[in-house]
Design a protein that fits this description.
Blueprint: H1 16-30, E1 31-34, E2 37-40, H2 55-72, H3 75-92, H4 102-119, H5 122-139, E3 155-157, H6 158-173, H7 178-194, E4 205-207, E5 212-213, H8 218-235, H9 241-254, H10 278-293, H11 296-311, H12 334-346
């Protein structure tokens, strides 16, 4: 999947000013707002607007904006989140139940409940809870456990299990009730016993026939780490810490370039493919866990990735999905560039 790195001489150390510059550069390149309705264009060349097929990517770009606010606590970034949710509704409408992908609905649940935590607007909480409840009702296998990826019920995937656990924990954290903690535990425990390996690898899915498929992808590793960390925080235990640590170490040791440092989960020329933005999800949840637990081992590795992102920016201040190579000027997509922004918001510069 990966292409060889181009090694550049370090131009400057990663600093807090780089976190702000990354935001400004991304918004200048991709953000548009018309009458209070915000959106990110798909790329910086065609300037096309996203459509119905961009459902989950739009949700995750909103989460990137929420990462920005969580670091800056700037009112303009709070408004950015509000306006992007208006843009999401403009494209996808207020009723998301026709989307057959259960993971898509969990991604927007996370974005919406985080918007509630940022704004305290009860409408977001109500919307997030309703979306979660709808998805859980149709996806959760009450007999054998696990959540179906789509309404076809052909496989149970990590990409629904991890987000479902995180979404349930965010709802519980926001006052939805004890049952959401129980649902988070059920989703996490199923993923841990079915798709997780003791070395920290999380398989992609298991078919309805019971056959496990697929290896590591950074976003599955990331939501698993996030769920484990939030379970520790919200239960007051350290029971889940070994799983977070193993998953983080496995990603570092087995899903990076030949130097075991840089995350280059990218297919050249495919900035609109799903995996072009996976690393931002990993950075969000692994970064939160490493910061809040003070895990210097993983923070040091994430800092090396942040330094690489800075060293490979183009003249617009953007870093594309292939962190280990210089970023072209055009075309680059908002989706692939969003993962670098999330990394920089979630990984503080070394002191």
């Amino acid at each position: 999947m990966n292409t060889p790195d181009t090694v550049l001489t370090q131009t400057k150390p990663y600093r807090s000013s780089d976190q702000d510059t990354a935001i400004e550069s991304f918004l200048k390149a991709f953000y548009t707002n018309q009458d209070g309705v915000g959106n990110f264009v798909i790329d910086n060349e065609s300037r096309k607007y996203p459509g119905p097929l961009d459902f989950w990517r739009m949700a995750e770009e909103i989460e990137m904006a929420e990462d920005i606010y969580d670091r800056t606590h700037d009112d303009s970034h709070k408004q950015l989140v509000i306006d992007l949710l208006k843009g999401f509704t403009k494209v996808h409408g207020p009723d998301w139940s026709e989307n057959i992908y259960n993971d898509d609905l969990m991604w927007i649940t996370m974005a919406t409940v985080r918007a509630y935590q940022i704004t305290q607007n009860k409408q977001y909480f109500t919307q997030a809870k309703a979306c979660f409840d709808l998805t859980w009702e149709r996806a959760y296998d009450s007999v054998n456990g696990g959540l179906w990826w789509t309404t076809d019920n052909t496989s149970k995937n990590a990409c629904i299990s991890g987000p479902a656990a995180v979404a349930a924990l965010l709802l519980f954290q926001s006052g939805a009730g004890e049952e959401y903690l129980d649902k988070a535990k059920a989703a996490f425990d199923w993923e841990r016993t079915t798709l997780y390996e003791p070395n920290g690898l999380i398989h992609d899915n298991i078919s309805a026939e019971g056959v496990v498929h697929g290896g590591v992808t950074s976003y599955n590793q990331g939501t698993f780490i996030g769920a484990a960390h939030l379970l520790n925080k919200l239960t007051g235990t350290q029971d889940y810490e070994p799983y977070a640590l193993a998953a983080a170490r496995h990603t570092r040791d087995h899903y990076t370039d030949q130097h075991a440092v840089i995350m280059n989960e990218y297919e050249a020329g495919k900035g609109e493919s799903d995996n072009a933005g996976f690393k931002g999800i990993f950075a969000r949840w692994c970064g939160l866990w490493a910061r809040e637990t003070g895990n210097t081992e993983i923070l040091s590795w994430l800092n090396e990735n942040a330094q690489t992102v800075i060293d490979h920016q183009n003249t617009q201040g953007l870093t594309w999905g292939h962190w280990g190579a210089p970023t072209p000027e055009k075309p680059v997509t908002a989706w692939e560039c969003s993962c670098a922004v999330s990394l920089l918001q979630n990984v503080p510069p070394p002191k």
